[in-house]
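Friendly challenge for the regulars: who can give me the structure tokens for this chain first? No prize, just bragging rights.
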Amino acid sequence: MISVRRRGVARLAAAAMVSGLVAASAIAVAGPAMADQGNQGIGGATATLGDLKVFDKVVVKTDGHERQVSAGLFEMDVKSGGSIQTYCIDFHTSAIQGQEYDEVGWDQSSLHNNADAGKIRWILQHSYPQVNDLGELGRKAGATGLTPKTAAAATQAAIWHFSDKVDAMPKNGEAAKLTEYLEKNATNLAEPKASLSLSPSSVAGKAGERLGPITVDTSADTAAVSLAPGAPAGVQIVDADGKAITAVSKGENKIYFGVPAGTADGSAELNVQANTVVPIGRAFVAKKVKSQTLILAGTSTSTVTAKASATWAKQGALPSVTAMKNCAKGGVDITAGNEGDEDWTFEVKGETHTIAAGKTETFTVPVAEDEAYKFTITGPNGFEKVIEGVLDCQTATPGPTPSETTPAPSTSPSTSPSPSAGGSTTGGDTTGGNTPGTNTGGGDLAETGGSSATPMIAGVAVALVVVGGGAIFFLRKKKAAGQ
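First reply, four minutes later:
Bragging rights claimed.
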């Protein structure tokens, strides 16, 4: 198994290589669509990172140096409807505006081995914006004159204390009192449950059977279920009694694929959708690239989704595959089942696995920290499961020492980002501070942990295109080696 390393210079080099490959491929030709792993069983909210909306200055001390960064709340648009607000829990990593994020459990984020993760949730529950009576919040903290901006900055500084062990304090003296109050009084709270999840996300069997069960867990009272387009005629979503259903509730949350006898070998997919409030404290990680990990602080009613699939055949192997990141083991857990009457053999990342008839096995595919991965598992009757994402399980460590204070963001906190801005890096920082050593001028957008100085990125991007092109040439030369 590949060990997970802390992110010093090695992290920077890895990020540069990935960035170069992305830049080169974007110029050469558009790549295939990414598999929507966030909706495969894990489900929940998918949201697009917007701008840093409510923020103020925070002074950060690292290696004997001080710098000012903008710290506060991001606004994110939920893909299927609704909006949320988030704080940063990965100070030294850049936040890339316009990227899609998935709601995940703490075990799939940088909080997986953080003994203080529950204290971060306490801070979220006991500070702004969950507590929007700033007069009362100020009285508890012994502070006066708190505003949404200074309260958000104070809250973010306290969160960084527990997520990144960063020495951060608001520039505003009254806000600093709130930070001290939050750090002193924080206690560990339990992890919040997912807004929506399916288990398992893949089932198999024979026609004439109910394939499942699939357990639906959601914070909503009810969730709608439907077959995805293209399902064979006669296939339905049914309950344990075989009755066709269009919704599930908390009390009756097990569903099945009902496949009539005589149905030709094939497959189908179902969608589950719920309108609910995503629980405060859920982590959000980027789907396609390395971008700052965030944690939910403010929420509205949002539409959350998940999906599951089924395959059936008269004879032979009948595969099913469910995948989930495993930060503790530094990889992706793959649960492979075979409901057929023959063994099923497949390959993942150069290793061969055989699942005996009627058996299920779980194994971990090692993935390096910050590595973008993509595995395609195939089986009989056209079975194909694409598993991809980015393993982001550790908070970043500082780079070189900064030479001067981070420039102030020029984006107005009251102005929403243009939809066309997707994919741009949030100049300077975006919820905390620039990665040390990248504080060149500009400050195009708001800050929040991590570097993204525009002039540096512009220059580095050109060089990385060349690096990416060279890497692609090298990979082609090494194709025979299976890389």
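DSSP finds six helices and 23 strands in the chain. Confidence is low (pLDDT under 50) at residues 1-40, 400-446, 451-483. Your move, everyone else.
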